[in-house]
């Protein structure tokens, strides 16, 4: 029983980290949206880089989550892949109530992140199409056979 309590405390700490990561991601996505709306390419690049750094931290968190699920699966004699936060909370009984509550917080934050990421993505695609249209207007269709696109090869000896 003590091992279960220890694993649950580690899982709760991991969930706190995940919730905090979602909060940071939400803030970074909001900054990215502001930068896109401000049309400042340098600021967009800065915000995108910060967001990418945050998202790279997800690899270490996923590894930690997998280790915890494996340990819990071994304890209960079930494959780790079958465990969900809900099933862990149910198996743990009253010890799992906090896990269940944190699951709800994480789902809420994750849903907000997904919604904002979609909005930021749509805004970025709009900007990309706009700039592509401007470049096409200024320089013509890319890949066309027109000499304006890239000039012509000529025989220098002729």
Relevant terms:
single chain, 158 residues, mainly alpha, Methane Monooxygenase Hydroxylase, Chain G, domain 1, elongated
Concise summary:
The protein is mostly helical.
Number of strands: 0
Total number of distinct structural domains? 1
Q: CATH topology, what is it called?
A: Methane Monooxygenase Hydroxylase, Chain G, domain 1
CATH architecture: Up-down Bundle
Distance between the termini: 90 Å
Task: Briefly note the structural class of the backbone.
Answer: mainly alpha
The topology string of helices and strands comes to HHHHH
Low-confidence stretches: none
Outline = elongated
The quaternary state of the protein chains shown equals single chain
Q: Average pLDDT across residues?
A: 87
Number of DSSP helices? 5
Task: Describe the protein.
With 158 residues, the protein is an all-alpha fold. It has a single domain (2-142), classed as Up-down Bundle (Methane Monooxygenase Hydroxylase, Chain G, domain 1). Helix content is 81%, strand content 0%. It is built from 5 helices and no strands. It has helices at residues 2-38, 41-76, 85-92, 97-139, 147-150. α1 (2-38) runs parallel beside α4. The radius of gyration is 25 Å and the shape is elongated. The model has no long low-confidence stretch (mean pLDDT 87).
């Amino acid at each position: 029983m003590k091992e279960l309590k220890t694993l649950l405390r580690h899982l709760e700490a991991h969930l706190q980290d995940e919730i905090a990561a979602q909060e940071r991601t939400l803030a970074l996505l909001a900054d990215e949206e502001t930068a896109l709306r401000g049309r400042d390419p340098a600021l967009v690049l800065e915000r995108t880089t910060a967001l990418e750094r945050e998202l790279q931290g997800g690899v270490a968190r996923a590894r930690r989550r997998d280790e915890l699920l494996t340990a819990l699966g071994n304890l209960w004699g079930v494959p780790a892949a079958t465990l969900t936060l809900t099933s862990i909370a149910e198996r743990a009984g009253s010890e799992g109530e906090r896990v269940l509550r944190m699951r709800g917080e994480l789902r809420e934050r994750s849903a907000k992140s997904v919604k904002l990421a979609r909005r930021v993505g749509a805004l970025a695609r709009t900007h990309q199409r706009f700039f592509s249209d401007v470049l096409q207007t200024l320089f013509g269709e890319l890949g066309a056979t027109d000499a304006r696109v890239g000039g012509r090869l000529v025989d220098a000896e002729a």
